Prior knowledge:
By secondary structure, the protein is mainly β. Helix content is 12%, strand content 54%. It has a single domain (2-498), classed as Outer membrane protein transport protein (OMPP1/FadL/TodX) (Porin, Beta Barrel).
Amino acid sequence: VFLFMKNIIINSICFLFCCSNAMAQNELDALRYSQTQLYGNARSAGYGNANGAIGADFGGLSYNPAGIGLYRKSEFVFSPSLKINATKGVFQNNTTTTTNTKFNVNTFGLVFISKSAENKTYSSWESTGFAIGYNRINDFNINYAYSGANNSSTGSSYFSNGANNTNTVDGYSPQYLGYQSYLVNKNSAGQYLSVVTPGMPLTQTKEYTQSGNMNEVVLSFGGNYNNVLMLGATIGIPSINYNAIRIFTERDASGNTNNDFESFTYKEKLNTSGTGINLKLGSIVKVNDQIRLGLAYHTGSSFAMNDLYAVTLQTHTENLKIKYNDLTGPITTIQPDKDNNFNYTLITPNKFIASAAYFINKNGFVSIDIENVNYTNMRFKYSSEFASYQTAVNNKIAMAYKNSQNYRLGAEWRIENKMFRAGLNLVGNPNKTSEKAFSSIKYALGFGIRFDQIYLDAAYVLTKNFSQEQPYTIDGINAPIASINNSMSSLIFSICTKF
Length: 499
């Protein structure tokens, strides 16, 4: 009888407040889709994609579209890559290593150049150009895990606190899942308490699998005015494909098989898709034969987004269910009948890019890009019924992030028809509270060879990413911190045909 009443009460509340957990977006989601990095073709990747003042590179059209004015011929470019990820998760002095490999296409595009006639009586335009194709601007493929002992807090508090602190219960809420799975139960005083007792020795494990990417279709046009001023514009149509599976497991490490708790596993699955639009404007000035200066402005992207969210909670509560006349066994699995589907809008921040390049005769160059991004301008937009949540999450973005600078440095040296390249990227840390100046560092080496109409290039890029997280975030509970150190090796190849 008690079990029947337990189900009917929760399900009634669920019906009345079915929209309480419709939104799952937070400041981390906004950052994920705003912190873009061009992966580019092998040529530009070899010198760190510091091509804001170099030009004549398809990948650069996603940075400074004025580079189209420096093309001398039309071209077709195709650039595949192979990425190898190695990630170390450190938690409670225990290290877990994971690896994964992924094949991608970084760049695919066509550039059409129309040169002015030799006798330019009526125009000072040396050439005009149009380009179409796509660049990969983000990569989400990464796996990591960490595991360790903890007796100072429990992830089950996420479910019990949810029940005690809110009157809203739906099929996705932690209180619904915890209560129906017997992880959380109501005592005689009306409090919802976890079956995990304070101080119990626990083994906590988190596994995270992430896949997907962001690609940008580019439609670029521009020209070369008197071989001094290059102007260009790119209409960008970025798309998002993001998939994540997060699994948190907590196990009793006491060895006691009669304390009503063996383990629980909480699984979240998120599939996000989106399509946006933005505008990029750029200019490059040839100061003289040695010096070029570039300036570009990117509007933020406006994305129409869709989230498909699913959760599952499985518990092993030993003999507890027998006390409630439930003889279905110690394992309980709770999963909502259907996935949570939600549509919304995301606005990413605008960008300013200043660039400079110094050419050493026709033997090579050194270049630098400085990119400024104000991450406080990220924001979500929801329908009017979720206005209060929209205000709350956007305020949290403003409090969590800051204005940040990214630096790209590169060099190329030519010996006959062979090119040798090197580059360095420093990605500024957007988090206000972080002590690290840079959230990511990228090192690059490249090589290219030129034939009459065909260019072949290869590059190796090593990216180091550093982050920290807690396995669970619960008000009033100080969960231990895990460190995530990621090393990503990319092999990039390109073939370019001039025509």
